[in-house]
């Protein structure tokens, strides 16, 4: 704010801008600085300060006041920059709410424009400087030429005057005089020529100077600051040139006036000489006015008359001299007055020119001083701004640091809390996961266990089934071996099959018992089939019929004969169905045999065997083997059937769940 | 084979009777020739003796299972 006020104090345009943009700032300025002075037109070119400000604006976010301050400075100098900086300030300044409605141009465009302008200015500057230099150079050249010409003219005039004087005063012999006169004429012509030249050169120089002045004015009108020193220099040069030219011109003029005096004097002298000559001629007409023939042609009379004329002339001269002396004073006075007048005029002219020059000089000096002070002020402003910028950056740094701290602590807090939350969440989730996992695991384990048990039981069951199957198979094998009985031959020995059974049911006691319960003959020798037994029975029956009468008491040969006879004569039914209960009279051999035959025919070997078991005596003895075989077969069959039933039962049993 | 026993016995009987008869005959003949001056009664006698021996043998053979032997206990005798 202090910087703003100071700068407003120095630059009224800036002050006006600030007053325009910030409300109530005019009052502040009025309080601090007093009323605003009318703004002088000082064109401030784009200086480095603006670049610094740009830099500041670009890189820092400023407070509102500084924003506007900077914007106003820049707007005071360059409208484009203000347009550029205000949107920049608006973009960067977060508090800038009261920003005037300025069209926001895009930064790039403005920067480009600025660059363009800078370039244009730069070009203009260079062209201007080049123009100035060219103009200066040409003007200097021309002026130098003019000065040289003037100097030459001066020289010529001086020489001519000198020569004239010499010619006037020196009494040289006529030929030398003529050469002198000729030389004088040459000098005169040269003088006139050089004077003309000098005049022309002066004109040219004056024209060039005017041109230069015009160029300088044009440059001044362009109002480019960087050209100012060159403009100033050009002006100085111009001024010096003008001064030199004027001095030379004055010198030439004085020389010319002197020359005029001398020429007047020479004219007078010439006139006097002519007069003298005329008088001389009037006195001595035959003497030719020829200085060359003067020395040898004059006679003594001529000489005397000449001397008398001369004396007369001298007297006349003396009289004129006295007159002149008298008039001298008056002439001198008048001349003095005239001179005074002329001097005054010249003085005035000189004074005016000197004044002009001085004024010019003063103006130049003022401008130079202004320039210097401006630069000093600028530098000071720059330093102040820099200081302010530095202070601002420090302040910003501090504020940012504090903010950073605060934000950091906040963020840390938030982070911690969220972290805690997340951690608890995570713990909870993991715990849940673990629990569920444990549950799953337990369930899976239980299921696994169940499955294992099921599998084991299945295995056991399978085992059992296998065993049962094996048992069954072996029993089937046994059965099969039972079937292998040929008609009159026993079966294969059942030993192998029984062994197989024994092996297949190694831990089954029942089966083992059954397997061991088989009669050994069946194992070793095999058993007869029912069919064979049936077939055999008929033979047995026949025999048993024949020896039906023989028993312990009756066993002689005669009885044999009698029983044979009985067998031949007795006819019983071939097959008779046995009653459910045997009575005493059923125990007759023949009846028994028919019962047995019937039961055999009907497949009931057991009953047949039972019935045959009831035989007594020799019939019994005859049927003994058959009975044994039948018993064996029955036993075996019983055991086998038991086994197969058992195997079936076991097989059935294993298919059921335990 | 118990049922073949009778047949065997009878075969033996017959064989035996034949032998006996033959032997009796032979002896009878021999005796008759030798001792009894070709009377026929030694032949008959011999034949008869032979036959009788054969008959007895046959009978004994047939009875053999029913015989109670002295050195065997009664309980074992009926073992069949």
Automatic annotation (TrEMBL), chain A:
Record the organism. Answer: Oncorhynchus mykiss (Rainbow trout)
GO BP, one annotated term:
cristae formation
Role played: Component of the MICOS complex, a large protein complex of the mitochondrial inner membrane that plays crucial roles in the maintenance of crista junctions, inner membrane architecture, and formation of contact sites to the outer membrane.
Which residues fall in a coiled-coil region? 300-327
Could you tell me which PANTHER family the record lists for this protein?
MICOS COMPLEX SUBUNIT MIC60, MITOFILIN
InterPro entries to which the protein is assigned, alphabetical = MIC60
Key word Repeat present = no
Q: Which Pfam families match?
A: Mitofilin (PF09731)
What subunit structure does UniProt give?
A: Component of the mitochondrial contact site and cristae organizing system (MICOS) complex.
A single Gene Ontology CC term: MICOS complex
Where mainly located? mitochondrion
Q: Where in the cell is it found?
A: Mitochondrion inner membrane
- Entry keywords, A to Z: Coiled coil, Membrane, Mitochondrion, Mitochondrion inner membrane, Transmembrane, Transmembrane helix
Topology relative to the lipid bilayer, per the entry, is: Single-pass membrane protein
Which family does the record assign?
Answer: Belongs to the MICOS complex subunit Mic60 family.
Q: Which domain of life is it from?
A: Eukaryota
Q: Quote the protein name from its UniProt record.
A: MICOS complex subunit MIC60
Claim: Mitochondrion is one of the keywords in the record: yes
From TrEMBL, chain B:
- Could you list this entry's UniProt keywords, alphabetically sorted: Membrane, Mitochondrion, Mitochondrion inner membrane, Transmembrane, Transmembrane helix
Task: State the superkingdom.
Answer: Eukaryota
Q: Where does this protein reside within or beyond the cell?
A: Mitochondrion inner membrane
Q: What is this entry's stated membrane topology?
A: Single-pass membrane protein
Which residue ranges run through the membrane?
18-36
Query: What family does the database annotate?
Result: Belongs to the MICOS complex subunit Mic10 family.
* Its job: Component of the MICOS complex, a large protein complex of the mitochondrial inner membrane that plays crucial roles in the maintenance of crista junctions, inner membrane architecture, and formation of contact sites to the outer membrane.
Quaternary organization: Component of the mitochondrial contact site and cristae organizing system (MICOS) complex.
Name of this chain's protein? MICOS complex subunit MIC10
Q: Which organism is it from?
A: Oncorhynchus mykiss (Rainbow trout)
């Amino acid at each position: 704010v202090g910087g703003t006020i100071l700068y407003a104090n120095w630059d009224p345009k800036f002050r006006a801008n600030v007053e325009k943009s910030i409300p109530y700032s005019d009052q502040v300025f009025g309080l601090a600085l007093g009323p605003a002075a009318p703004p002088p037109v000082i064109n401030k070119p784009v200086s480095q300060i603006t670049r610094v400000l740009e830099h500041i604006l670009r890189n820092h976010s400023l407070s509102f006041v500084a924003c506007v301050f900077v914007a106003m400075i820049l707007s005071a100098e360059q409208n484009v920059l203000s347009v550029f900086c205000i949107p920049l300030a608006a973009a960067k300044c977060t508090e800038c709410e009261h920003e005037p409605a300025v069209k926001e141009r895009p930064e790039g465009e403005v920067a480009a424009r600025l660059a363009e302008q800078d370039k244009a200015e730069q070009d203009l500057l260079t062209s201007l400087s080049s123009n100035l230099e060219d103009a200066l150079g040409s003007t200097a050249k021309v002026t130098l030429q003019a000065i040289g010409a003037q100097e030459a003219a001066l020289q010529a005039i001086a020489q001519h005057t000198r020569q004239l004087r010499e010619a006037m005063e020196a009494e040289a012999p006529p030929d030398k005089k003529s050469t002198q006169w000729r030389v004088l004429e040459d000098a005169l012509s040269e003088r006139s020529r050089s004077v003309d030249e000098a005049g022309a050169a002066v004109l040219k120089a004056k024209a060039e100077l005017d041109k230069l002045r015009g160029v300088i004015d044009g440059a001044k009108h362009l109002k480019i600051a960087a050209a100012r020193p060159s403009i100033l220099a050009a002006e100085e040069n111009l001024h010096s040139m003008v001064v030199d030219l004027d001095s030379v011109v004055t010198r030439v003029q004085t020389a010319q006036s002197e020359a005029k005096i001398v020429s007047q004097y020479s004219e007078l002298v010439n006139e006097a000489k002519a007069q003298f000559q005329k008088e001389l001629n009037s006195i001595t007409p035959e003497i030719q006015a020829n200085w060359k023939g003067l020395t040898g042609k004059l006679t003594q009379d001529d000489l005397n008359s000449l001397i008398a004329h001369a004396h007369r002339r001298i007297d006349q001269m003396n009289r004129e001299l006295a007159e002149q002396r008298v008039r001298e004073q008056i002439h001198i006075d008048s001349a003095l007055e005239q001179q005074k007048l002329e001097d005054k005029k010249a003085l005035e002219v000189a004074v005016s020119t000197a004044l002009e020059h001085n004024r010019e000089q003063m103006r130049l000096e003022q401008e130079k001083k202004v320039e210097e002070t401006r630069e000093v002020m600028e530098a000071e402003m720059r330093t102040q701004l820099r200081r302010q910028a530095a202070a601002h950056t420090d302040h910003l740094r501090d504020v940012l640091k504090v903010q950073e701290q605060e934000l950091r602590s906040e963020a840390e807090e938030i982070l911690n809390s969220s972290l805690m939350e997340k951690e608890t969440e995570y713990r909870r989730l993991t715990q849940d996961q673990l629990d569920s996992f444990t549950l799953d695991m337990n369930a899976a384990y239980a299921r696994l266990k169940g499955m294992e048990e099921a599998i084991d039981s299945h295995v056991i069951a399978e085992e059992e089934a296998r065993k049962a199957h094996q048992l069954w198979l072996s029993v089937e094998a046994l059965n099969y071996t039972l079937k292998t009985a040929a008609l009159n031959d026993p079966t294969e020995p059942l030993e192998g099959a029984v062994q197989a059974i024994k092996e297949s049911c190694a831990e089954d006691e029942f089966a083992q018992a059954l397997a061991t319960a088989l009669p050994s003959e069946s194992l070793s020798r095999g058993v007869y089939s029912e069919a064979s037994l049936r077939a055999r029975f008929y033979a047995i029956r026949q025999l048993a019929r024949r020896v039906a009468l023989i028993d312990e008491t009756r066993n002689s040969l005669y009885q044999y004969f009698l029983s044979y006879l009985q067998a031949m004569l007795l006819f019983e039914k071939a097959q008779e169905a046995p009653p459910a209960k045997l009575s005493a009279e059923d125990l007759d051999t023949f009846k028994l045999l028919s019962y047995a035959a019937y039961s055999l025919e009907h497949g009931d070997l057991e009953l047949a065997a039972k019935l045959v078991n009831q035989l007594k005596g020799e019939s019994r003895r005859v049927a003994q083997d058959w009975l044994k075989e039948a018993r064996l077969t029955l036993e075996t069959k019983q055991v086998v059937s038991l086994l197969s039933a058992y195997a079936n039962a076991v097989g059935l049993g294993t298919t059921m769940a335990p | 084979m118990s049922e073949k026993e009778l047949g065997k016995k009878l075969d033996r009987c017959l064989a035996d009777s034949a032998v006996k008869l033959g032997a009796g005959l032979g002896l009878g003949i021999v005796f008759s020739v030798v001792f009894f001056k070709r009377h026929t009664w030694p032949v008959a006698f011999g034949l008869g003796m032979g036959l009788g021996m054969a008959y007895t043998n046959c009978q004994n053979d047939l009875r053999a299972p029913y015989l109670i032997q002295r050195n065997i206990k009664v309980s074992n005798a009926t073992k069949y």
